[in-house]
TrEMBL record:
Residues 255-349 form the MULE transposase domain. Pfam families: MULE (PF10551). InterPro entries: MULE_transposase_dom. PANTHER family: MUTATOR TRANSPOSASE MUDRA PROTEIN, POLYPROTEIN, PUTATIVE-RELATED. This is MULE transposase domain-containing protein. Residues 1-84 are annotated as: Disordered. Residues 50-61 have a biased composition (Acidic residues). It comes from Microthlaspi erraticum. Residues 1-49, 62-81 have a biased composition (Basic and acidic residues).
Length: 440
């Protein structure tokens, strides 16, 4: 399965990361830690600096001429110079560093002691006579790419070549060129794309694992073909068999549905369906990943839920959601007889956005939503009309019969007028929404 190019997904204002600045500050703070932990190659024994057993071993090394001058095999122990500002080279039992400054004698040479099989410093000239020039040949393009890989994955538009150059200079006092940073950033983006290609290529394996460990579950991996005739990801749906069976046996006949943005590099939407158990606690039913929240994807998702839960035409069931047009249309087509309630929080949010923050409006709207019967509803509606006629007109446009308790059917054992369960769920999985699709 090849990686698809996602369609542009609009970002809602309320999904804006208000903590963006602090995230960048944390990124700056973590750079030094990242470079300390960076390993260009897997850690092996000769990469670890050993402690000597005793002062006697050091004295013996001095007597054998190994500490200052005495490498026993000069041809083997003289590594090639020029590999970096400080690093000379190593083999399996010896390693050396020198200073790249002009005429500077700083030098260290280590090898494994034959008697102890541990690393010892045999030559060390510790005084620098050069000036710091900010150059480090060891900080090559692939090292910069690995150092900033996670930062670029999280905020690719922030970590541009100029910013990377500035951070390296300010944090490590090392000078790199803008071209190096550009090449390193491109390399990091290439690695990230390969990661996603690998993840999407394993989705069918992931689906097979779900079915093997959870027989009779519902898994749908929907793909489309690109111009090259390759399958690319379109949407993904999961509903575990044990969850849907227990929902039918023990839960209230109410389903809350909502969509929320994924926060990984590849944008998309997570669609969820949640129920309520006998204690009114949140009960996850099914979820799906789609490219964008539209009528077609909601129709696909609602059809999946309809089949898995055996809802038929939706009679005697409740659906709670916001006023997303694609969702409303899909619900009417798939479940024509379901009681579709609108979330009052979203209704009030729309009124607040249009009319501003009026202290009295919130209480009046919620009082109207909680009207116990039609007489209470008419009285509360008249109160709003007398308070502000323009607000009254906008409330009537919102079809209050879909979000006021006075018009709910009797016998469904749920008087909720909001969709707080799905909002709470979306908040709970906020961290997981930052993960990659295949590992979320």
């Amino acid at each position: 399965m090849a990686l698809m190019e996602w369609h542009d997904v609009p970002v809602l204002k309320d999904e804006y990361d208000s903590d963006g600045e602090s995230r960048r500050e944390r990124n700056d703070y973590e750079l030094e830690k990242s470079i300390e932990e960076f390993e260009d190659e897997p850690r092996v024994q000769h990469d670890e600096y050993p402690d000597t057993e005793s002062d006697e071993e050091e004295k013996e090394a001095d007597e054998n001429g190994e500490h200052e001058h005495g490498q026993r095999n000069p041809k083997r122990s003289e590594p090639k110079r020029g590999a970096g500002n400080l690093f000379e080279g190593y083999d399996k039992d010896r390693i050396a560093f020198h200073c790249g400054g002009k005429n500077c004698n700083w030098y260290v040479y280590c090898s494994i002691s034959g008697k102890t099989s541990k690393w010892q410093v045999k030559v060390y000239r510790g005084k620098h006579i050069c000036d710091v020039n900010g150059e480090c040949e060891m900080l090559k393009v692939h090292v910069i790419a690995r150092l900033f890989l996670h930062k670029i994955r999280d905020e690719p538009e922030y970590f541009m070549p100029m910013k990377i150059e500035e951070l390296i200079k300010s944090c490590f006092r090392i000078v790199v060129t803008r071209a190096q940073c550009q090449t390193a950033r491109n390399k990091a983006l290439k690695w990230i794309r390969r990661e996603y290609e690998d993840q999407f290529s394993r989705l069918r394996d992931y689906g097979a694992e779900i079915l093997e460990s959870n027989p009779d579950s519902s898994v749908d991996i929907d793909c489309i073909q690109n111009a090259e005739g390759l399958d690319v990801f379109n949407r993904f749906y999961v509903c575990f068999d044990i969850i849907r069976r227990k929902w039918k046996e023990t839960c209230r006949p109410i389903i809350g549905v909502d969509g929320t943005f994924l926060k990984s590099t590849i944008s998309g939407q997570l669609l969820v369906a949640l129920g309520r158990d006998a204690d009114n606690a949140i009960y996850p039913i099914a979820w799906g990943i789609v490219r964008v929240e539209n009528t077609d994807n909601w129709l696909w998702f609602m059809n999946k839920i309809k089949v898995d839960l055996g809802l038929e035409d939706g009679d005697n069931y409740i659906l709670v959601s916001d006023r997303q047009k694609g969702l409303i249309s899909a619900a009417k087509k798939t479940l024509p007889k379901i009681e579709h309630r609108m979330c009052v929080r979203h209704i009030y949010g729309n009124l607040k956005a249009k009319h501003g923050k009026k202290p009295e409006m919130k209480g009046l709207v919620w009082q109207l939503a909680w009207s116990y019967n039609e007489a209470d509803f008419r009285a509360n509606l008249e109160q709003i009309k007398e308070w502000d006629f323009v607000v009254y007109q906008d409330i009537m446009k919102q079809k209050p019969e879909t979000w006021c308790r006075a018009f709910y059917k009797i016998g469904n054992y749920c008087e909720d007028v909001e969709n707080n369960s799905t909002e709470s769920w979306n908040s709970t999985v906020s961290k997981a929404r930052e993960d990659d699709c295949a590992y979320a």
